[in-house]
Amino acid sequence: MAMTEPRLITTRVGDPEGHTLERYLATGGYTALRTALGMSPDEIHAQVKASGILGRGGAEFPAHIKWRTTMDLPQPHYLVVNADEGEPSTFKDHMLIERDPHQLIEGMAIAAFAVQAHVAFVYLRGEFALGFERLQTALNEAYEHGAVGRNILGSDFSLDIVLHPGAGAYICGEETALLESLEGKRGFPRIKIVPTVVPATIGVYSKPTVLNNVETLSNLPWIIANGGDAFAGLGENISTGTRLFSLSGHVEKPGNYEVEMVKTTYRDLIDGYGGGVLGGRQLKFIIPGGVSSAWFGPQHLDVPLGRQEVGAADGVMPGGGGTMLGSGSVIVADDTTCPVRIAWRIAKFFAHESCGQCTPCREGTGWLEKAVWRIENGDGRPADLDLLLDVSDNIAPGLSWPYPMTTICFLGPSSAVAVVSALSMFRDDFEAHIELGRCPHD
Amino acid sequence: MARFTPENLQRARDTIALYPQKRSALLPLLHLAQEQDGWLQEDAMAQVAELLDLAPAEVYGTASFYTMFKFQPTGRHLVSVCTNIACMLRGGYELLHHAEETLGVRAGGTTADGAFSLEEAECLADCDRGPCLQVNYRYFGNVTNDGFDTLVADLRSGKLAAEVPPHGTLSRVRRSVPRQVPDEGTPGEPVVPDAPQSGPQRVHR
To answer: If you ran DSSP here, which 8-state letter would residue A152 be given?
Structure first.
């Protein structure tokens, strides 16, 4: 996978042996952990706060706030890694787990020491069989090396890490569903009351739990080694450091690219690193932050890759607002693409993955899937377009970005975003399907 | 042979010991049962229930939430073809249709000889190599129709046996050490206290 400077977390991914302890130690591995163990938890927290790192799982919540919340509460604390990467077209954590598992383990050990958690879990997507083998091998090596286990690296601190395989459920990437699943239950999201009832206060086994994404934790060795200020020196505004973007779809060179935040635009990513639209064709639209994000068009190519920058963009949602970087996936669709078909596939995905707890989502996702399918296959009626907007408005009132919540978790309102984006950008396409009685792109 | 072998029973007990609360071992134990039998049989779920102090209905009710658990005999090779957006833009559905024709089963079906099960999968997180598929959760990327036919032939002949273990096996690497740190919480004890003895009783353990 092609990579670009600056590299913080992808220095080993091109090395076929980068996943082994031998290569990890030869390239400076576990020295940051040794440094961290010589610091106090508050000093480590100060570095993470100075770095300004936002969570890399999709919600972009400041990591240091989660940590502080847990640190200030009574023991025991737990650390849980969200390695349940499932947002369609996101494949960065998959790469980090397979290619550099020790970097993740070192990041976990640093985080666990900082928040004083003695048991840490990796909730690993069940389908990541090779990732499981690589991570288990690395973990066995790390125990042997003394980087995990009793009195790690000769310190007073002890830590167990447990790999926990999921079993195929997109919703378990939602942090509270993940905790339910980790407790051996169905992946039903829990009600959160920010800021008092969140995983950082009441997490796994109802104990304070720091829940971070794979990429977030993989950045910790670099942050400790180079200092939080150095990390904050990259990027701009609240979007500091680098981020991995998973580029896919109609693009010449799909892959994961580590780029400096805000200094890079969608155009740089697609035309520069990605080699442009496949076959030199014209860009029709991009799905800029995972299928839960509002779409962008060619007019948005110069928007910088930063949380505030994409959020403040003049987006396509009828209720206003921009979009999100989300999970860091960017899907490119060229001018031969049928937007109705894409909207249908996304609606189908959400209908399949809805956990069924909340009515707007359980019922609404099915309605959206059926109505878009009808249109795509030539059985649509003119009134269906208003129906789509009406159903969407019931799931995500106002059809804006961001949306108000009608459901326990974000899956419900996310499901409406693709359909509404497609309809507001390409209403002509929808109407042509209905008038012709077939898909004009077939 | 759905009940755990003595070796797997020991593995199950070792796994339970990793967690502060027993029930957390549910998914790992179900994977272990599926690894042993190729799919999840009722008496295996009953044994998991017994090991975790759960009602069998709680085990089945949880297991059925997750797509990786199979409740009927599944082919030695489970072929999961991704049709989500990134793969769809690169021919995922065309690949799925080719797979259906080649194997002679629709998505969701199993070949008569029990060699292959075919399913349509949601995003498998290998999108830069779309269209992609997994066989028993091992990746194959940039799969053409010809490539698919070769893959099927190689799976049939056993040529890929080293790369692709039988369905149900996730990691061939086992954890090498038990828990090192005693939990500071209350191991095995629920955080929420049991219902009082008088008044309405919980209907299951």
So the answer is: G
- The CA dihedral of A380, A382, A387, A390, to the nearest 10 degrees, is 150
Closest among A134, A79, A149, A129 to A103, alpha carbons compared: A134
CA-nearest residue of chain A to B86? A249
For residue A237, the one-letter residue type is N
Containing A160, the helix (H) or strand (E) segment is strand A160-165
Beta carbons of A125 and A86 less than 8 angstroms apart = yes
Which one, of A213, A208, A271, lies nearest residue A243 by Cα? A213
Q: Write down the pTM of the prediction.
A: 0.95
**Which two three-digit tokens encode residue A185?**
């239950």
Number of C-beta neighbours around residue A185 at 10 A: 18
The string of pLDDT tens digits covering residues A376-426 is 999 999 999 999 999 999 999 999 999 888 999 999 999 999 999 999 999
- B26 and A184 in contact by Cβ < 8 A? yes
Minimal CA separation from B113 to chain A, in Å:
25
Q: How far apart are CA A209 and CA A339, in angstroms?
A: 41
Query: Which tokens in the block code for residue A295?
Result: 């779409």
Q: How close B153 gets to chain A, by Cα (Å)?
A: 22
Sign of CA dihedral A254, A259, A265, A268: negative
| A193 half-sphere exposure, CB direction, 13 A CA radius | 3
Cβ-defined contact of A140 to B130 (cutoff 8 Å) = no
